[in-house]
Amino acid sequence: MNSLNRLNKVTIIITLLLTFTVAVSAAYAIYNAYHQKQELVLEQAKNAFEKNLNFRKWVAMHGGVYVFPTEKTQPNPYLKNHPFRDLETTDGKKLTLMNPAYSLREMLENFKGRFDEYGHITSLNPVNPKNHPDKWEEAVLKRFENKEISEYYEIYNYKGEEHLRYMKVLNTEAECFACHETHGYELGDVRGGISITIPMIYYNEKSFQEVQKILFMHLFILLVLYGIIYFFYQRLKNSILEEQKLISQLALKDQMLFKQSKIASLGEMLNNIAHHWRQPLSIISTSASGIKLQREFNTITPDMIDKAMDEIIHTTKYLSQTIEDFTNLIDEHSSKITFNISEYLLNDVQILKANTKCQNIHFIIEVEPNIEVKNYKYAFTKAILYIFNYLQKLYENSLLEPKVLLLQLTRKENEVHIMIKENTNCIDDEAIKKLFEPSITSRYDYQTNNLSLFLASKLISENLNGSINVTHSTLSYENKDYSGVCFKITLPLENKE
Fold first, then answer.
1. Nearest residue to 316 via CA among 285, 273, 275, 284
2. Closest CA to 482 of 438, 411, 426, 442
3. pTM of the model as a whole
4. Which residues form the Histidine kinase domain (predicted)?
5. Is the dihedral of CA 102, 103, 105, 106 positive or negative?
């Protein structure tokens, strides 16, 4: 289930990352929409200001304009001292002079923009009371007077609705002195400002519609991505389930094969032990027969009986120990103990030597004495005997003479190294890659397989916390080199797992 759990975790992480990415993209798009809305309204306010300023300059450039007086457009009372405020045409029509501020104020009052935006010309010292600033305008004009800013805008609640208000400074220019010469202004002084007020309701509605489109688009993208993730998740999940099903079937077969191979290998070990018993049993038989024969001829003495009994008892104890060792080999639940690995390795060699099929093998023993390790003693013995069983079959199927086996045990720092070399040259390059798998590896006898090595590698890696590997090597014997393989086993002095 680990693969499926990993798939679930990765899928959740990818889903969260994509969701986060789409959410960030949506938030950024909404922020941009809001920012663009604000920039658009501000740009419109600036354009309105420039239009009003240009209109005022045009009127000022002409020294004012004459219009026909109407009910709404009365003569400017603040120009009553102007000698040419009122004129009459030759046909008797009356005209009145409108100065720049008066013209602009009337235009702003009578003509609002397309979206109800409107302007207001104002000053901290207005001649016309209608140009008196409100609180917001007054605060901005004071900042103009203090040279802090030359323009300012703000979005805030004005008259119960959200508005953008913009104001830019009006400086005193040469044209202004025609009307304000007596007001004490100098060229470049802050004369006042023009404020532009734009209701945001229309732009907010457009912005809301844009936000809806953004959210819908991102939601659609997210659903598509969810669908793609789900599609690939289901495919990978089904693939993993099929793989796990196959692995379970293979594991069951491997388990059966493992059990069968254990039984077969234990049978091989039992056969070796049986060969190992022949000599002790022969000693017992010989001692008993000798006592019987000497008693028949009345030549037996008490010392002879005691000697024969001691030999039988000693041999019986040896056989008993062999039975106990074999029982421990079968036991799957032995505990770690400290033991002399040098001694046990030599004992395993004696078991191999006792087999009549191995009596023509020349052994080269290079075992460093009295190396003690803390590990599973009987798991170690089983692993070594499994390897010996495999090598025994190689020797049986090899026509090469002489047959030589090198066994070497050394200690390096906190590890022991065991090297086992053979000279049969039975294992080719392709077979060596699969040597620890339950498959055929000998080109001489295709009924010979490496189940024993498979079991040995599992014991060494899983129980003994060690490692085993195999390489091609050469073995020197009686001034001649032979080809074969070398098994290298590395074990810790103390198994802490």
1. 284
2. 426
3. 0.47
4. 272-495
5. positive
- The domains located in the chain, with CATH, are 2-64+99-199 (3.30.450), 333-492 (3.30.565.10)
Tokens of 381: 């013995």
Kindly list the averaged pLDDT for each block of 10 residues, start to end, along the chain of length 497. Answer: 81 91 90 87 87 83 85 80 82 85 78 73 83 88 88 85 88 59 60 85 86 90 91 88 81 66 59 60 71 74 75 68 58 75 85 65 90 88 84 80 90 92 83 73 46 83 91 89 91 88
What residue type is 276 in one-letter code? H
